[in-house]
Amino acid sequence: MNIAEHLDNDTITVDIIGEVDGTNVGELEGALKASISKAPNVIIDLKELNYVSSAGLRVFLLIRKLTASAGHNMVIKNVTPDVMEIFTVTGFVKLLNIET
Amino acid sequence: MKDMTIKAETENLHAVFDFVVDGLMELQQTPTFIRQCKLSAEEVFLNICSYSYESEIGSVYITRDIVNKGSDKEVVISFSDSGIPFNPLTADDPDLTAELEDRQIGGLGIFLVKELMDEVSYEYEDGHNILTMKKALEK
Questions:
Q1: Which CATH number characterizes residue A69's domain?
Q2: What CA–CA distance (Å, rounded) separates B29 from B24?
Q3: Is A22 part of the contact surface with chain B (CB cutoff 8 Å)?
Q4: Contact partners, residue A50, CB within 8 Å, separation at least 6
Q5: pLDDT tens, position by position, B109-123
Q6: Which domain holds residue A78?
Q7: Rg of chain A's alpha carbons, rounded to an integer?
Q8: Residues 74 to 93 of A: which have CB under 8 A from any B CB?
Q9: pLDDT-derived band of residue B129, with 50, 70 and 90 as boundaries?
Q10: Nearest CA to B21 among B70, B71, B66, B73?
Q11: Mutation target among A19, A23, A54 for the B interface, most CBs of B within 10 A
């Protein structure tokens, strides 16, 4: 997994690239927590994420809750079909503010 | 059938991945099918790593087989550990309709396994938790 972020005024875009599983999810959580503290608008771009398990879902849910409680915006975009299957089966489609 | 014994530690996850998916591509299975098997294996293996052994880290015995089912074939993957007796299939499914504030994360992993595989079963035998999952090959 690789993470790339781009800050543009009050919007931060975070690209998550590769695979998120139980071995690297701690790294993802730390990176996203740092990213969302930098701007009130957060875009998580998943166009190059092709694997996520429940470990990653837990982090997405946590980040969604943290941004919501701070009154910030978070949107997830460019979800691949493989990752969308996992969001759909678990009902996360409704929770995560996914742009289609 | 092939098998492996591995310590119940998260850092061994990728070795479990390699074991589970080995040869599935040669059997003409799609990347989606392979990912679904891999993800189900992750959820079961990490569940064992997290909850099965209390003081001393034990091991997990994993088997994978391709068997005939009528005129079709299915992949059968089983995980056996000698930790605390626990049937994960008895846990309640997560409430998929809960709003953001109320949404709990527990139970999602096993729920995913049940959704992505065709059959999941549990038995406790000779001091071992044995979880077996099956999924019909695509062609």
A1: 3.30.750.24
A2: 6
A3: yes
A4: A18, A19, A80, A82, A83, B35
A5: 999 999 999 999 999
A6: 2-99
A7: 12
A8: 81-82, 85-86, 89-91
A9: very high
A10: B66
A11: A54
State ipTM: 0.94
How confident is the model over B16-54, as pLDDT tens digits? 999 999 989 889 999 999 999 999 999 999 999 999 998
B108–A64 CB contact, under 8 Å: no
How many Cβ atoms sit within 10 Å of the Cβ of residue B67?
11
Cβ separation of B108 and A95 shorter than 8 Å?
no
Domain tally, chain A: 1
CATH of domain B2-136: 3.30.565.10
Q: Do B97 and A23 touch (CB under 8 A)?
A: no
B97 pLDDT above the threshold of 90: no
pTM of the model: 0.95
Instruction: Give the tokens for residue A98.
Output: 């996914």
Per-residue pLDDT band at A51 (split at 50, 70, 90) = very high
Say how many Å lie between the first and final Cα of chain B, rounded: 19
Q: What percent of chain A has pLDDT over 90?
A: 98
Q: Report the candidate in B37, B2, B1 with the shortest Cα–Cα distance to residue B17.
A: B37
Burial class (CB in 10 A: 0-12, 13-18, 19+), B111: buried
Work out the number of other CB atoms within 10 angstroms of the CB of residue B91: 13
CB A63 within 8 A of CB A20: no
> Residue B130 and residue A79: Cα distance in Å, rounded?
35
Query: CA-to-CA distance for A33 and B45, rounded, in angstroms?
Result: 27
